[in-house]
Amino acid sequence: MEVLLIAGMNAMPADVGKIADLAEEIGPDRIQLNTGVRPPAEDFATALSEDRMQSLRHLFHPAAEIIAEFTGKHSTHIQANQATIFAMLQRRPCTAQQIADIFGMHLNEVSKYLGKLMRADQVRAKREKAAVYYTAKDRKEKGHAGKKNNEM
After folding, report:
1. Angle at 124 between CA 129 and CA 92, to 5 degrees
2. Following DSSP, what letter does each residue of the chain receive, concatenated?
3. What is the pLDDT along the chain (152 residues), one digit of tens a residue?
4. How far apart are CA 152 and CA 149, in angstroms?
5. 1-5: long-range contacts (C-beta < 8 A, 24 or more apart)?
6. Taking the chain, what is the end-to-end CA distance rounded to the nearest angstrom?
7. What is the radius of gyration, based on Cα positions, of the chain?
């Protein structure tokens, strides 16, 4: 069972305790905790810190496994090129460092591919707090010159 915890929504110990009680009734083989570590669709959805997740995992019996990726613990056996990076950005927003970590690439190489994708109007960059996330543009966005909100 995977449980998604979002600050201000369901991450108070009392709320997580109720979720843990329901999980115990269901009796899954294991329980995994996740949080929104990438930019969410809604601005109010805020991720929990790794420390906060650690403090809540023990409310589950047995203790839940944390699956949120707070650092670059990724496989490096995947062959990356412009097409594979674009395909990933169609599924989820990523920072350049996350792409480098996922594919085992040097940051300069990732920057080269991101630059090509941006010049081809396939990808946009958006600042979220202190990080810049890249995401694939959908068909409606391509060719629009205007910038919205905190897009770069």
Report:
1. 75
2. -EEEE-BTTT-SHHHHHHHHHHHHHH--S--EEEE--S--SSTT-BPPPHHHHHHHHTTSSSPPEE----S----S-S---HHHHHHHHHHS-B-HHHHHHHHT--HHHHHHHHHHHHHTTSEEEEEETTEEEEEEPPTTTTT-----TTB-
3. 999 998 878 989 999 999 999 999 999 999 999 988 776 666 667 788 888 999 999 999 989 999 987 764 444 445 678 888 998 899 889 899 888 877 778 889 999 999 999 999 999 999 988 899 999 998 776 665 444 445 55
4. 9
5. 1/26, 1/28, 1/30, 1/31, 1/32, 2/31, 2/32, 2/33, 2/34, 2/67, 3/31, 3/32, 3/33, 3/34, 3/64, 4/34, 4/35, 4/36, 5/33, 5/34, 5/35, 5/48, 5/53, 5/56
6. 37
7. 18
